[in-house]
């Protein structure tokens, strides 16, 4: 039984050996596999190295990359605000009329304020109207620092902001052509500044709540026409006014009128010194003419009225009553007679004519 077992094993081994030999000799064909298609390796894209770009392409590429990053950061910040402001991804829509005015002015620049709460946000359409580009306080969610504002009335402000209002320094250009450069406080022109009016008048001086108040000067077409005090946008207090015809008034003003004590000098040599009321002599004063005539006395509404003394160049004098600019009533008329003797006679006058001697 042991011999049979070994024979079987021997046959199996021989049979296996023969198969192996046939296979090796190639007399029996092995089934062929289908050919696999040729695969090419995908080349990895080379990362753009900006430093390898020529200089004429480097700067625009860097600028574009910076702007894209800045706009994404700004959009993320605005998304967290209470009000729905919107980035416009274009320059501020300044009106052509404003641009035309700006082209005639010297450039006006502002500096960024450094603070951990401040961020620059590009051109933004504001929920409350208007457009703004500049610094924001991301905690208070309001304009803070330097920036440019276009208001709903299309006026333009370049300067500094605090708590969303114009503050410190800036330039404000209005559609009607008025321009202000100077100090601001809580949106008001406040402090020192220059106001260019569209009619050619330039005011330089103090402001309070958008009005000329304090000390200042007014120029028109390059000539100084007023220097003095102002209150609530009007000449008020002491000042010197040069009129278009060359006449000069120096004295007190009230609500834009000559009012109080002052001296008025005409270009032809006449002078009046005394009391004024609403641009007219009123009260006590002295009027002189270049030919030697002189009046001292009282005025009412610009006319000699009440007691007055008038002197002529030849020595004649009248001292007495005046009504509406004329000798009227009783008075003393003095003159030198033919012998050179001084005469002073009491007389009665009506509307500037002597009625009789008294």
UniProtKB/TrEMBL annotation:
Keyword ATP-binding (UniProt): no
Sorted UniProt keywords: Repeat
InterPro entries tied to this protein: MORN
Signal peptide: none
Coiled coil: none
PANTHER family for this protein: OS10G0565000 PROTEIN, PHOSPHATIDYLINOSITOL-4-PHOSPHATE 5-KINASE RELATED
Stated name of the protein: MORN repeat-containing protein
Lineage: Eukaryota, Sar, Alveolata, Ciliophora, Postciliodesmatophora
């Amino acid at each position: 039984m042991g011999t049979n077992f070994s024979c079987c094993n021997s046959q199996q081994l021989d049979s296996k050996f023969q198969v192996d030999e046939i296979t090796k000799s190639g007399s029996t064909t092995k089934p062929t596999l289908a050919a696999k298609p040729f695969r090419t390796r995908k080349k990895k894209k080379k990362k753009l190295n900006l430093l390898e770009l020529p200089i004429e392409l480097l700067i625009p590429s860097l600028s574009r990359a910076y702007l894209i990053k800045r706009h994404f950061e700004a959009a993320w910040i605005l998304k967290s605000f209470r009000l729905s402001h919107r980035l416009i991804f274009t320059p501020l829509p300044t009106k052509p009329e404003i641009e035309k005015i700006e082209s005639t002015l010297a450039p006006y620049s502002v500096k960024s304020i450094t603070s951990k709460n401040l961020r620059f946000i590009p051109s933004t359409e504001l929920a409350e109207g208007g457009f703004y580009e500049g610094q924001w306080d991301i905690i208070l969610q309001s304009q803070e620092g330097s920036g440019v504002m276009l208001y709903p009335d299309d006026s333009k402000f370049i300067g500094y902001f605090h708590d969303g209002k114009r503050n410190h320094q800036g330039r404000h250009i209005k559609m009607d052509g008025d321009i202000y450069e100077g100090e601001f406080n809580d949106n008001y022109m406040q402090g020192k500044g220059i106001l260019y009016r569209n009619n050619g008048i330039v005011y330089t001086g103090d402001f309070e709540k958008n009005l000329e108040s304090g000390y200042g000067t007014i120029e028109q077409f390059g000539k100084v026409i007023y220097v003095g005090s102002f209150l609530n946008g009007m000449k008020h207090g002491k000042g010197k006014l040069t009129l278009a015809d060359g006449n000069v008034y120096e004295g007190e003003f009230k609500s834009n009128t000559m009012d109080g004590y002052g001296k008025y000098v005409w270009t032809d040599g006449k002078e009046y010194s005394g009391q004024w009321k609403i641009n007219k002599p009123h009260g006590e004063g002295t009027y002189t003419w270049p030919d030697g005539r002189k009046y001292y006395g009282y005025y009412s509404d610009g006319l000699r009225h009440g007691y007055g003394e008038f002197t002529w160049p030849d020595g004649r004098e009248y001292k007495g009553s005046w009504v509406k600019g004329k000798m009227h009533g009783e008075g003393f008329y003095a003159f030198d007679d033919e012998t050179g003797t001084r005469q002073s006679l009491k007389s009665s006058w009506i509307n500037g004519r002597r009625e009789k001697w008294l």
